[in-house]
Amino acid sequence: MSTLAANSRVRLSRDELHQLRWLLGLVLVLLAFWTLFGLDFGGVGWRLLFLVTAASALAFPGWPGRIPGWIRRWSLIFGAAALFTQFIATQFDIMSGLVLLVSLLALSRALEYRRLREDWQLILLCLFIIVLSGVLTLSLLFGLQILIFTIVTMVLLFVMNLLQRDAGRALGREDWKNFHWSRFLRHVRQAVDLWQLFQAGALFVGLVVVGTVIFISIPRYQFAQSFSFSSTKGVAGFHGDIEYRETQDIAPDDTVVLRVDAPDGVSFNSPPYWRMIVLDEYKDNGFHLSSTLQRNGFPKSVRYVSSAHPEEAATEQGVAPFVPGTWKFYLEGNVSEYLPILGPFDTLTFNTSQPFWPNEEVKIFRTELPSPKAMGYEVQGMDFGKYLPASRTEMKDDKEGIWSLSAVDDKRARNLTIIYPSTCFELPVDPKDPAHKSHDRQTVDAIKDKILNAAALVKGVEPGAVSREDFLTATVKYLAENHQPSMDMDLKGTETDDKDVLVRWMATPRSPGWCEFYAGSFVLLARAAGYPARVVAGYKGASLNTSASLPYYLVRQTFAHAWAEVFDREKGRWERWDPTPGADLALADSAFGQANAGITQVSGWGAFFDNLRMIWYRRVINFDQTDQQELAQQAAEYGKSFAATVSQWFKDRWLDIQGWFTGPVTAARYETLAALLIATLLGWWRRTQLRNLWLRGSGWLLLGRPHRLAPVRVDAGRWLRRFLPAWQAAAPVLDGAERAQWEAVRNDLLALRYGPPDAPINPAGTFQQARVLLKHRTSGRQHRTSNIEHSTSR
Fold first, then answer.
1. Which residues contact 757 (CB under 8 A, 6 or more apart)?
2. Predicted TM-score (pTM) of this structure
3. Tens digits of per-residue pLDDT, 21-42?
């Protein structure tokens, strides 16, 4: 930095530098605590408390000095007690306790007046918190957070480097007595060199760009699923069981839980059903996955055919549901261990190896635990039709009466264990006396008979002649007419002899409920009529993000849904039935616990920011060799296109110039040429004056940098560094006239460098004289050297 610039700029005192160092440490702590809000485990209360405490210390830097010494001495005991309490509250979740412990240490370091060594500890603690949060969430926001952390840390390290001589000093309470934010910020602003700050920012942006290019260019392995941490709850709240209680309500949640890249050409003519879990067993006021199916695991590499009879799928199903191509799924963290799938497929591939259990019987697929971060997987070829092919176990000869309601009742009466697929006939029973039909079972049978008689009346046949299709259709109609969709349900005051909550709901006219009540009632009534049925839970519907260059499907938590599947042994398949009112409409009301039945298109700022997250998922979570090659190819094509555009622009301008000169001669052309010639001659004639205007500082004013050194001083300093050594060497041998000429040039250079800005000196002429003298000095020395060498050789 030049002497003039250094003297004209305000400098921060060492006390102010220490204050800036301490405040920057608090900024790092606030940034680290901000990242903690992306985690789903642990309490929000202590995170909010830590954030508010650090923010108040930043706003009022003097108050940490008022903390009594005994609190600081006992802080370790307090931290241990808080950590133990957290362990108990989270059932000894190690990850939650680790985050709390590191956060306590960071807050403790932030609130004390630190030395430089303790600043290093604070930086490492904050870095650990931010990286841990980023690894567990893989959020797009993590990229911004780590970028801000890097910038603040670089500034802090720079300030720490300036204070190396005071490395052992720590601020005290008295150092903040006269602190005012406005005055402090004004001093910092006056001390900062904005031009150097701009250069540093440009260098940092360049490093980020280079890092991005390297990230795209080099091969890499997938670490998205390399770590597995347990979590105490799911973000979206998807549960694997359905339990019915007297009073229930569902809070709306519009969180995105799934994003899907579908193969080219895929379009949904009806709302897609994303199957996740099959609930076959009914007991204890709810549907559950039976223990038989829970134990039914298979090897990782399993191939699932799209249909037991492909030709039948194209005729009787009425559609050609099997779609070849690659489906890419991005499931948000902590949604469920069960994977959303539309139907049977060819192969399923994760981006890394991990425990995985496919269930051949009911076509459900799960991981060991819900992933704490977003998870990607690919599916090759998938069937999303209405029908699901039966398994080998379901189609084997029924010698044991597994598809007979009476046989299942007989097993229950003998207190025998009922295994899948016989669990698809389970109905409410009295646990104290399973051999006899309970009042709940009698109620279900009575409602079934009522529906059967109504269907027989409509078809004009005997109740025993009602077809399976007619009975199930009549059941859907009965539920729609006798109940009302709602997100709230309250059966208090409707006590009857029925102990089962779902049966009481079925028997209570106009009782409100959502899809789980409709699907569960439908399954019980189908079973009572002798048709094997089961509840399926997952998501229904999707939204198409059209703001992206590559449109993709969004599935939100409000799309959570339950429906039924009924077995058709004659055709060897399960058929989907959705009894919830509005299921057959193009667009259903999500307020009734049902997803948008049609594919809606989303756009706007929300869709734009979600597209940024999808880009992050595509390039980080599922960044394989194919994606890498595609991205590199796109970058190369963009570079070629940009180069071709620039080249074409120059060619067009050159052709315009050629056309202007070769075109017809007009008066306007002569006037333009004359003006250009006159301007050129004037510029050449006044070239010295124009250059002096620039050197005197007019150019700096034009560029908006009036506080910088004028170019004349910069150039004069450069000439002095070359001229003074030559003058000192030449002075002893110069004669009077030459010595006077050298001294005059030297004095003019010194005046231009350090004298008044308006000194009556011709800068351009002075620099030219210095150039001539240095040239003559160099040529004279070379000439004398050549003469000496010539005489020596002779």
1. 696, 697, 710
2. 0.57
3. 999 999 999 999 998 887 765 5
